[in-house]
Here is the input.
Amino acid sequence: MPRIETDICIIGAGSGGLSVAAGAAQMGAKVVLIEGHKMGGDCLNYGCIPSKALIASAKQAYAVGHGAKFGVANEDADVDYAAAKDHVHNVIETIAPVDSQERFEGFGITVLRDFARFISKTEVQAGDTTIKARRIVIATGSGPFVPPIDGLDDVTVHTNETIFDLRDRPEHLIVVGGGPIGMEMAQAHLRLGSKVTVIEGDKALGKDDPETAGIVLDRLRAEGVEIVEGAQAEKVSGSKDGPVTVHTSQGDFTGSHLLMAVGRKVNLDKLDLETGGVAYTRGGVKVDAGLRSTTNKAVYAVGDAAGGLQFTHVAGYHAGVIIRSMLFGLPAKAKTSHIPWSTYTDPELAQVGLTEAQAKKKHGAALQVIRTEMHHSDRAQTEAKTTGLVKVMVVKGRPVGASIAGPQAGELIGMWAMAIANNLKMSAISNTVLPYPTLNEINKRAAGAYFSPKLFDSVWVKRVVRTVQRFLP
Here is the structure.
């Protein structure tokens, strides 16, 4: 039986695992990378990349029918759903070499394509190979959670792992789950020609700021997405090839296809963590602030496997944290206060730091909330994308959170993420000179709105100005 001894063994070749592997190997560590499924993980194959590619196709279809305000005649889009899926897979294939086995072997990494499991506290087995490592990194990510709803076994259930392989456009897509995945897929499919109903047991986009989320939901409803909130799915009926009905407390909803988008479950079940002495819960491996296992100091976890925020960019951030610890023996802690996220609906929705409600609870009277409507952006006016707002939570001159709904919110949130990550003051934003006209000016306008009352409404400032004017030559 082959046996390998190495510095670092990484289980999972998604964003976190690949980042750790590349960084560690290029800095001189011996690395083994184990992947039992597809290189690139969920993000490349089933998540971020395919969903954004499908959204791009949907935006093109929408633009064809909404050009009159720009002087271009509205036309009914002739959508080829299968061709849109071809675009999705072409994008995946274009990016795949960056995450490929060949590329990482080029870094000097030993790549094993099998599922791994612990056989001791410092050893894992992948196929017939045993790997003994000084440090083991669990980077197995997560997969779609399908709840045990009565009747699901009798119908065809799609998740994000299967919906991108569907070649025939759904006549009526029923989406169970009103989170980011559910709402993105709902709008995309509506724009590609499907009727869409979203069923959410609580509030749609419930983890985001209610005001900014409401802007997005209003737009989706206006386009034709049926969103039913407070409707817990209790039972499903139908057949594998026929219509499917979701029975809820708010009534029954029948469609041609069913997409489950109610959340994620961490991929830990194949690892035999008990044998490795690694404590865990349903939410992930139990780790300390440095992402190290609380019960086996040879083990780290990153990304979804570490619990907490489930975003690709978090996994990449975690990689940097543990590399500092594993390679250099330096203290490093993972934080969440500066982590942004975005939902890529149209308009987009983005958040970093505290929401307004969270900031009020934490900071009380010290909080100032600055609001700037998107229609104040000249660039937004030129593109007729004026729905939305930027809302910034400020404490003692520093932003502690920002919520954005509007065009390219996922890009706009970057300025506030940088400010919060580096503990910058609002003056750092207001002092920044930006090209005109750009959407990013709306962020500077928000910073200006913070300072305006201090400058223009201040009796003291006006007195100083009048006094200075008397003595200026």
User: Anything to note?
Assistant: The two ends are 91 Å apart (CA to CA). The chain has a mean pLDDT of 96.
